[in-house]
Amino acid sequence: MYIRRPRSLTRAKIIFATIVGIFGGVYIWKPLLREELSKKKAEQPEIAIEFAEEGKSVKSSLWHQHLLIYNMKRSGLFNIINSHPALILATGLLFTGGMIFSYRKLIRPVLVEQKYREAQDYAEYLFNEEFKQKVANKSDS
Hints:
mainly alpha; 3 helices; 85% helix
């Protein structure tokens, strides 16, 4: 289904409203995200101790990379994405973009073709009925 937009609502206005909405959402959710991030940072020393106890050296410059790899092995990709607010936002944007792309490139062409086929069948039916009526009128005369 196609939703028509008013002529006064330009693409630039829609993009501006989208950007303002995203920043508004970030502003509103920032305290919750900070709280979650502080919880994750509080959990990191325990993980680093466990990582060091396994006999692997932890260098200060590569500490975050090792910790990230260890977390990925330990808890899976889903928990890694949930541990970083930027990754949550990026995942949401990628998912939304994928849905829009799949609708525009895969679903909508099939629906449009089906709509045209139905319209063509209906027009053919009307043409045949009209033709039958003309033939019937000529035979009656």
